[in-house]
Amino acid sequence: MDIVTLIARRGGVIRSSEVIEHGHSAYRIARAVSDGRVLRPQRGWLALPGADSDLVGAATHGVLLSCVTQADRIGLWVPKRASEHHVAARHPHTRVVLPRCTVHWAKPLVPREPGRLEDPIENVLALVAVCQPREDALVMWESALNRKLVDALSLEQLPLGTRARALLADCTPFADSGLETIVRDRYSWLGIPVRVQVPLFGRRVDLLFGERLVVQIDGRTHVGAQRDRDNAHDAVLLHHGYEVIRVSYEQVVYRWEEVHALIIGAIARGRHLARAR
Q1: What is the C-alpha separation between 107 and 224, in angstroms, rounded?
Q2: Among residues 198, 203, 262, which one has the least CA distance to residue 230?
Q3: What is the DSSP letter of 38?
Q4: Which of 88, 232, 104, 247 is nearest to 179 (CA)?
Q5: CATH 1.20.120 holds for 3-52
Q6: What is the pLDDT, as a whole number, of residue 79?
Q7: Which of 24, 51, 131, 239 is most buried, by the most CB atoms less than 10 A from its CB?
Q8: Which of 57, 112, 118 is nearest to 47 (CA)?
Q9: Is the predicted pLDDT of residue 1 greater than 70, yes or no?
Q10: Which of 192, 232, 231 is nearest to 213 (CA)?
Q11: What is the rounded CA–CA span in Å between residue 190 and residue 186?
């Protein structure tokens, strides 16, 4: 396998030693660099032109992409995009100076392989737990569990910190989106059951407060056939005595007071309680 193909199969950035292990000589590597087919972002690393700039930057500075930056990269629900990159020092005593970056120095839960530029999910979640606001961290933890990137039992067996262990205890890995996690968590003080993704009459509802109050959260785009199906299901729920509150993504994220007034008002009127037969 030629050098360019090998590097491409490794994601565009690779350690020089791994290329040599695959049978390529230092001379052949130097020729590839001289020809411009391969770049050398840092001693001991090789990259292809046009490779992922985040990975190239991590190799250049001897760090790993981690915390909220890596959470976003692997597709976790991240409530707020970080204004700067979050990275982890490869070793606790490594000197790392990176402007406009948050550098994490904590000892990793899971050992980091020498050629790795992206932190394992367990380390990402551990850093999120101590770096991000609790609600945002909970959303990312539940997202990781929901997507089966890690399981709760494996996390329980790791030496989690106090905040990470508290997050794990609060996780309900059934939420379909971060918005459901946010709403459920904001009413944990109510003292009534708040369940997510509850099956009712052939479809799942986003949240069920108590026995009868359904809260549905529309995505950023809620049009056409999807909206028609949702409206039809709402009608079925209403017919069977459920109270249905439907709110938008924008309301939950930007106009929370509107959502809160609707939910608390319905609960004050007992709409979450089962109807007397």
Answers
A1: 49
A2: 203
A3: S
A4: 247
A5: no
A6: 86
A7: 51
A8: 57
A9: yes
A10: 192
A11: 9
Distance CA 64, CA 116 (A): 7
Return the domain boundaries, the chain: 3-52, 62-170, 178-268
Summarize the confidence of residues 55-71 as an average pLDDT.
95
| Token pair for 61 | 């500075």
pLDDT in tens, 143-193: 999 899 999 999 999 999 999 999 999 987 676 778 898 899 999 899 999
* Structure-token pair, residue 181: 């996690």
Select from 3.40.50.2000, 3.30.565.10, 3.40.190.170, 3.40.960.10 the CATH code of 178-268: 3.40.960.10
Q: Could you tell me which residues come within 8 angstroms of residue 32 by beta carbon, excluding any fewer than 6 positions away?
A: 3, 4, 38
Tokens of 182: 């946010």
Q: Rounded distance, CA 66 to CA 191, Å?
A: 36
Which tokens is 233 given? 């299901």
Please name which of 147, 146, 158, 155 lies closest in space to residue 184, comparing C-alpha atoms.
Answer: 146
Mean pLDDT of 10-38: 93
